[in-house]
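Quick one:
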Amino acid sequence: MNILIVDHSKVFRTVLHKMVAGLGHHPLSVSTAEQALDMLHRESVDLVCAALSLPGMDGVSLCRQVRSHPQCQKIPFILLTSTDDQTIRHEAFEAGVTEIQGRTDTKELTDRLSKFFTEEREEIHGRVLYIEDSHVAAHLMLKLLLHMKLQVDHFRTADEALAAFEQHDFDLIISDILLEGVTSGVGLVNRVRNSASGKRRVPILALSGLDDPSRRIELFRLGINDYITKPPIEEEVRARVRNLILSKQLLDQVESQARQLYQLAMKDQLTGLYNRNSLQEFATKYFSNAIRYDYPMSLLIIDLDHFKKINDTHGHLAGDNVLAHTGDMLKQACRDGDLCARIGGEEFVLILNYCEAGDAERRAEEIRKSIESLKPDGIAISASIGVTSRPRGRRIKFEDIFRIADRAMYTAKNSGGNRIVYAPHP
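Output:
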C-alpha cells in the first residue's frame, strides 16, 4: 500500500519513511500540503499521514482540500499532532480527519498503522439474513456482501425471512423498512426482538430511503443496532456490517467463555454432575419451593463402599473410572427436576422433587442395584444409601434433612454396606 507522509521535518519524514517501509508498505514523503495535493493527483494513495503544523497550509486545511476531491474522499487521513486543544481537534474531525495520533509517539503510531492495515485485510466470516424487495437494491447489496465473503440468505418479504430466522442462526440481519407483504420491516424488528430464543439479540441493520429522524428514533427504540439511508455508500455499508458482525461474534465468544467458566465452577469435571458449590446454591431454592407449595421431596445420600480399597488395589485411574461410570448411571436415574451432585470423594447427593417416602425408597433400591451391576473394568462395586423425606406441612431446612440422610447412610455402611436405610424426620 502507498502511504503519503506529509511533514516539514526532514528528520521526522525519515523516521516515518523507515517505519512505513518496515511494515511492508511503500512510503511517499513530501514536506508541504501543496506537494501532498500534487502527489495525490499523480499517485494512487491508500492512506495519508500528515502533521498538523505545516508551512503555508496546515494539516486540517490539507484534509479539507483532500476531502473536496471526489476521488480522495474515502482515503483514510491520520493527523499527527501533540496538541490537546479541543477546538483544533474538533475542527480536524469536522474537516474529515479519520484519526488523530501523537506526532512524537512513533511506537503508538507504528502499532496503529499495523493494526489499521491488518483490520483492512482481515476477512470476516458470518451468515447474514437480508430482506429487500427491490431487485436493483438487492443486486448491489448482495454483490457487496458476497465480495466480503459472507454467507447471505436473501428474501423479498419479512414473513419468509422470519421463517428462516427461526430455523437458522445468523450473525446479522439487514432489512429494508418498507417491504412487500403483510409484515413490514418494523414488524420484523418487533418479532425478532420479542423472540423467546437467545437469537433475539442478533444485530439488525435497518435500511430506508426516507431520512426521517422520527422514524430512526422509533426504530432504535424498537431495537435496531444501526441505520443506513438509501442509496447506501459502499464503504459505509462495509464498515457498519463488519463492526456489527465482529461485535456479535465477540459477544458470542464472551458468552461461551462464561458458560465454560460456569461449568468449571458448578460442575464436577470427572462425573459431569453438579458439585458441592451447586448443591449449596440450588438446594435451598429446591427446599424453599417444596415448603412454599407443600409438595413432597426426598433426599438420597449415596456413598460407594470400600472405595479406598479400589484405589489402593487397582490404582487411581481405575478409581476415577468407577466414579465416572457411577456419575453416568446417576444422571440416567434422574428425572426432570431432580438434582444430582458429587459432593466429595465417592459421595453423591440426589434430591428428588415430588417424591414421597415410599417412592424414594424404591428409587434408592433401584440405584443400589444399578451400581452393583455396573462392574466398570470388571471391578465389583456397591453403595450404601441413606434416604429421608420432607414431611408435608413441616418447615424444615435443607441442612437438617441432609444430616438425617447422612446418618442413615452411615448406618447402612456400618451394617455391612450395599444396602439402603430410610430415616424419617423426627
